[in-house]
């Protein structure tokens, strides 16, 4: 006979603890997974959104381009519509500018100020930007407009994130 006999009471304690722990883990694991899964989910790298804009149709005149995509914010998924001002510059390079004014976030328009034609104009506090998105000195915005990363696939313009203007 072994000296370490397990009493009936101890056996019951071990069994109940084991079964209880197993059941608790079974209940907690799905909750834990639900709580942290979206946070741990891979960001998926840079996402580009297909627009309806054919690259061949772009000219030197900025056009307003609305585009939509699904956005997942942790557990909440929604459809977001963004806007870009797009055109081809003198070198034929595509420029895609964010319309969000860098002063207080109003929306800029192209060529809507009679006194300052061919500029982006913000009606809120009369902020102005040149065609390449640079803020005009002496107006409220202190930074250039953000510009979208982009790529071209099958002749269609895809837009990525809007990033701050890179100093030359
Ligand atoms: S928000 Fe555009 S100038 Fe103030």
UniProtKB/TrEMBL annotation:
- Tell whether Phosphoprotein is among the UniProt keywords: no
Its keywords, alphabetically, are: 2Fe-2S, Disulfide bond, Electron transport, Iron, Iron-sulfur, Membrane, Metal-binding, Oxidoreductase, Transmembrane, Transmembrane helix, Transport
Q: Which GO terms describe its cellular component?
A: membrane
Show the SUPFAM superfamilies listed in the entry: ISP domain
Q: What is a single molecular function from GO for this protein? A: metal ion binding
Which residue spans traverse the membrane? Answer: 12-32
Q: Read off the InterPro entries from this record.
A: Rieske_2Fe-2S, Rieske_2Fe-2S_sf, Rieske_Fe-S_prot, Rieske_Fe-S_prot_C, TAT_signal
Pfam families in the record, alphabetically?
Rieske
| Cofactor(s) the protein needs | [2Fe-2S] cluster
Domain Rieske, which positions?
86-159
This protein's record includes keyword Oxidoreductase = yes
Q: How does it assemble?
A: The main subunits of the menaquinol:cytochrome c complex are a Rieske-type iron-sulfur protein (QcrA), a cytochrome b (QcrB) and a cytochrome c (QcrC).
Q: What does this protein's UniProt record list under function? A: Component of the menaquinol:cytochrome c reductase complex. The Rieske protein is a high potential 2Fe-2S protein.
Write out the similarity annotation. Answer: Belongs to the Rieske iron-sulfur protein family.
Specify the protein name: Menaquinol:cytochrome c reductase iron-sulfur subunit
Biological source species: Peribacillus deserti
